[in-house]
Amino acid sequence: MIRRLFIANRGEIALRIIRTARAMGLVSVLGVSEADRHSLPALSADEVVVIGPAPSAQSYLDVGAVVAAARAGRADAVHPGYGFLSENAAFAQAVAAAGMIFVGPDLASLTAMGDKLMARTVGIAAGLPVVPGGEAADKAAARAQAAHTGYPLLLKAVSGGGGRGMKRVDAPDQLDAQIDMAMAEAQAAFGDPRVYVERFIARGRHVEVQVLGDGHEAIHLGTRDCSIQRRFQKLVEEAPAPAIPADKRAAIEVAAVNLARHLQYRGAGTVEFLVDAETFDFYFLEMNARIQVEHPVTEAITGVDLIEQQILIAGGARLSLRQGDIRPLGHAIEVRINAEDWRADFRPSPGRVTRAAWPVGPGIRIDTHIASGGEVPPYYDSLIGKLIVAAPTRAQAVALLARALDHLTIEGVDTTRDLHRAIVADPRFVTGGVDTRFFEGLAR
Amino acid sequence: MSTPDLPLSPEDVAEIAAILDGTAYQRLDVTTARFRLRVARDGDGFTQEWTFGEDAAPAATVEAVATADTGPGVRAPLPGTFYRAPAPGAPPFVEPGATVGPDTVVGIIETMKLMNPVHAGAHGTIAEVLVDNATMVAKGTVLMRLDDTAP
């Protein structure tokens, strides 16, 4: 039985988890760094425990410090959110060893999916198609693997997720420089410099499937399309994935459920696929064994609170939802508002938000931890909020998104708002079903 | 530091906007000891603007490194952690005496988990490196002195 939930995260997702915890009658205990002591999540949680100093390595990424804070908060469960320690098997183990429930999948699933290489092996074992590629522990191994895989190729952090440390390499002479940067970013973000070399499919779409499992049963909650990315950072996500033939979409969903069943998966997870934009052939990429940034678009079309499902399953409950209960309705789109100067190569723009006016109205959801006077510290990622719109049809959702962006004003830091205005005005986006090269072709 | 509850749920705010929509009022301001909420008409829609207690002091403070702000120099293009080398244990990008051009990468600043290159910004010779490796710097901090009088 979970009564006191420790939240080992910050920003909008911390506030999002606090809201569901409150609705479920749980006591929320938030772990914060020194830099986040006065954040909106800290003001909103029932109780707050300081984990450590501002830098993530000494607070949100410090397994010992986070577990100690959760124990000090007398928590009986720990929700890791996304990023930070959410997919760290050692953390899940430490939480369990301290007698608390980890709100996430079993250790076996985390281990199987925590590493892209093992994920690939497990995907093959579950009968899912995969893209050609292989691991590289150092530069020499990367050169050898690259020669084997062919160009263009992708370098990915083995322990990564969310695009950090991911680089595209078009020709052999670029390889050395890109490996240095990829390994440095992988080390900084995940504490593991190993990279994975993978063949780059030019006209691909990024389509993922939300799954829920209780160790016995597994269901899917439909697709999301996250093809609009810049340097593998998602900018826009929508549900369901538009412009995919019904039989292909069903095949992707079935493959995701097959993987969840193969893993006897417990909790919420996302199975990511690379989909060929012309043939709709699909390849399993990885599974994110956690809640994702873009989960609200799935919530918007299914009416299911995914954080609540995570907490219920972690508490030992069997799935109360059946596949037949999931009847997605309408269309939802999320845009990420980041504190970045998108016209200056997306340079991070930390600082104080002097004014934050977010849109409000029917079909509009805002997930943010930033109010007027809010602080965007330089230590963490740049997401300051998410604007989610939902409407009966995709065309209506696109129109609502355009209007909502007009009613969004952030002053004091630069944001990606106007980038999203350019995206929503792009005829390719209005039509729907774009591939991952969309961003390169965006008129600016 | 914590308060027992969020003042109003997102649904409450949406309802306030819907109520306003049926009236001639332009906006609604609610101010309490803990927060201020303004729901305002904005063309064909509504905005919500929240402000929380004034005691919420600036949370993040970047310790600026005191450096003499004279002469041509390489400045931090953004706040973050300054690194002299591309990877731990690797040789620094530049040492004093190195000849650089505007696009020469002389360091990295890690901000928000991203590695941002620092360019020299001008032709010259690196005269002195003023900031230690792995130091938190403010935007505009002079990282290196640049001697641009060389031929």
- Largest Cβ-defined interface: A-B, 61 and 49 residues
Low-confidence stretches of chain A: none
Strand-residue fraction of chain B? 35-45%
Question: Fraction of residues of chain A in helices?
Answer: 25-40%
Number of strands of chain A: 23
The assigned structural class of chain A equals alpha+beta
Query: How much of the sequence of chain A is in beta strands?
Result: 25-35%
Shape field of chain B: elongated
- State the low-pLDDT regions of chain B, or none: 55-69
Order of helices and strands of chain B: HEEEEEEEEEEE
What value does the average pLDDT of chain B take? Answer: 81
The side-by-side strand order for the widest beta sheet of chain A comes to 14-13-10-11-12-15-22-20
Oligomeric state of the chains present here: heterodimer
Helix % of chain B is: under 10%
Q: What is the CA-CA span between the terminal residues of chain B?
A: 60 Å
* Head-to-tail CA distance between termini of chain A: 53 Å
